[in-house]
Design brief:
single chain; 231 residues; Glutaredoxin; two-stranded antiparallel ribbon; disordered N terminus
């Protein structure tokens, strides 16, 4: 075929082969060239052996996934992180009715913090609680870090109900809690879509999905109040 033809054929094979196969083909090619063989073949042999002994990228990713914490099978199995960086186990919510809300500091619905705090002060305790999840996915209306969010909530609305770390509530990086809240296959009740900041989800004391409300439903809405009070 000639040297040019050999090189062209070799390039085609390289383009179609994987990394380890590429090294193997190069190894065989160098064996046919006496000058290159003398200097490069010993070094390439070491590289090829190293590549064969190294885990593939997909294997590395699979190992990382295998080492990850197992997916929660129920609402009370979740463990999240709060605004202070501390772990918050949903197992501590067993026996409590829960309202979960995605929050933002620069939204037209931000004043609902006031109603949420009022609801919490009236009914919060052993039987009911509110869990807030800051989110910056809607028009970038929660741009601050955890410290800034905590300061804003306390200073402007006296928020005392638990606030969690900022998360994604939709999309490819949707937090597992919201994946559970939004998929009937996981929660066993209904599908839901988080449409904007301050959507509200209700979960009963046994960890069962109860309802989803949009942003326009006020925290002191009669249905939410009835849920919080246990009626």
């Amino acid at each position: 075929m000639g040297e040019t033809g050999d090189l062209l054929a070799f390039e085609i094979l390289i383009n179609k082969a994987g990394p380890i196969m590429n090294l193997t083909l190069l190894y065989l090619f160098l064996q046919q060239n006496a000058i290159m063989k003398k200097f490069l073949l010993p070094l390439l042999s070491l590289v090829l052996i190293s590549a064969c002994n190294s885990p593939a990228e997909s294997e590395t990713k699979s190992q990382k996934l295998a080492l990850a914490e197992p997916a929660a099978s129920s609402f009370h199995d979740f463990v999240v992180t709060d605004l202070n960086g501390e772990k918050f186990a949903f197992s501590s919510l067993e026996g409590k009715r829960v309202l979960i809300v995605n929050t933002a500091s620069k939204c037209g619905f931000t004043p609902q913090y006031e109603g949420l705090q009022e609801l919490y002060e009236k009914f919060g305790g052993e039987n009911f609680t509110i869990i807030g999840f800051p989110c910056n996915q809607f028009m970038n209306q929660e741009p601050g870090d955890n410290e800034e969010i905590a300061s804003f909530c306390k200073k402007n609305y006296g928020v005392s109900f638990p606030m969690m770390d900022k998360i994604n509530v939709k999309g490819d990086e949707q937090h597992p809690v919201y994946k559970w809240l939004c998929e009937e296959e996981l929660n066993g009740k209904d599908d839901a879509r988080v449409s904007w900041n301050f959507n509200k989800f209700l979960v009963d004391a046994e960890g069962n999905w109860v309802a989803h409300y949009g942003s326009r439903t006020e925290p002191m809405d009669e249905e939410i109040v009835a849920f919080a009070s246990g009626k």
